[in-house]
Specification:
The radius of gyration is 23 Å and the shape is globular. Helix 3 runs parallel beside helix 4, helix 4 packs parallel to helix 5 and helix 10 (253-267) packs parallel to helix 12 (287-298). Helix content is 57%, strand content 4%. It is mainly alpha-helical. A 3-stranded parallel beta sheet has the order 1-2-3.
């Protein structure tokens, strides 16, 4: 419920900002896209995506007056949940990722990222990445689940969970609205506190054995870690340093300084920064330099710490 509510509340804030900037809802809403995680409770995850799609359609139609059916569609990318992966018995992560990916597909995702089995230990190796890719391909080409738009529709438990998640997520969104919207709720620490409390409750359940994590608090074995770990070649860093030095030597550094000064000035005002970002990149201002300029004006975000 939290994930659906917080994600859609952010979407509401973006839509509201676009409307306040003078855009017509049906001109930009069909281009919006969202990002969700996939976790281990298979049926709940399928229902989560279905509830999010239904809730967003209602928000766009009833709250923002969208008329184009494409404006009411929830397009979303899904990444399997990195926080669900375990360093213990890491091969089990292949099963976790498969279940998560399958739930995302059966919930209607448009694109998918499958994590690798070794990501709780290090950056993934090429072999682990290939297994993650093959997981998607087997689901797509061998399972048959992608041949049906909503393969679990009509299941009592799926329909019940969809209704329940939609209702509770709507309640969360109302609470965020009462606080002044997603931005105000973030600035007041509400969303961060809710997430922290949920994470704490989950960890307590794992520690007390109320939530089973295979290989972590149940079904443990004595094991020696034998998975190959990725080792990065230090020459890659040196090569990138050299490329960056060569770029800075051949570019027009006077133009770079001028653009960074313009960017700083524009950042302090109300100017649309996107065209200036494009001009900076076209003149070889690096991403680090752009971010450094913005950081000098805005500072760095520091989340509220609430105990």
């Amino acid at each position: 419920m939290q994930e659906v509510a917080f994600t859609l509340a952010d979407g509401i804030a973006y839509v509201q900002a676009a409307l306040e900037a003078g855009l017509a809802v049906d001109d930009f809403a069909p281009q919006l896209a969202f990002f969700f995680n996939a976790h281990n409770n298979f049926l709940e995850e399928v229902a989560k995506y279905r509830a999010a799609r239904r809730l967003w359609a209602r928000i766009m139609k009833e709250r923002f007056g969208a008329r184009d059916p494409r404006s009411m569609m929830l397009r979303f990318h899904t990444q399997t949940g990195g926080s669900t992966l375990t360093a213990q018995q890491p091969e089990n992560n292949v099963v976790r990722v498969t279940l998560q990916a399958l739930a995302a597909v059966m919930g209607g995702t448009q694109s998918l990222h499958t994590n690798s089995m070794d990501e709780a230990l290090a950056l993934p190796t090429e072999r682990a990445v290939q297994v993650a890719l093959r997981t998607q391909q087997i689901i797509a080409h061998e399972s048959g689940v992608a041949d049906t738009i909503d393969p679990l529709a009509g299941s009592y438990v799926i329909e019940h969970l969809t209704d329940e998640i939609e209702k509770q997520a709507a309640g969360y969104i109302q609470k965020i609205d009462d606080l002044g919207g997603a931005l105000a709720a973030t600035e007041r620490g509400y969303i961060q506190t809710e997430i922290a409390n949920a994470a704490y409750a989950y960890q307590r359940a794992v520690d007390k054995g109320e939530q089973i994590v295979v290989g972590v608090n149940a079904f443990q074995v004595e094991e020696r870690q034998h998975l190959e770990k990725l080792k990065l070649d230090p020459a890659i860093e040196e090569q990138q340093r050299r490329r960056l030095a060569e770029l800075r030597a051949r570019r027009d550094n006077g133009k770079v300084a001028e653009l960074r000064a313009r960017l700083e000035s524009a950042t302090r005002g109300a100017e649309n920064l996107m065209p200036l970002f494009v001009e900076c990149v076209e003149n070889n201002v690096t991403l680090g330099e752009i971010c450094s300029t913005l950081r000098g004006v805005f500072g760095e975000y520091k989340p509220s710490v609430i105990i």
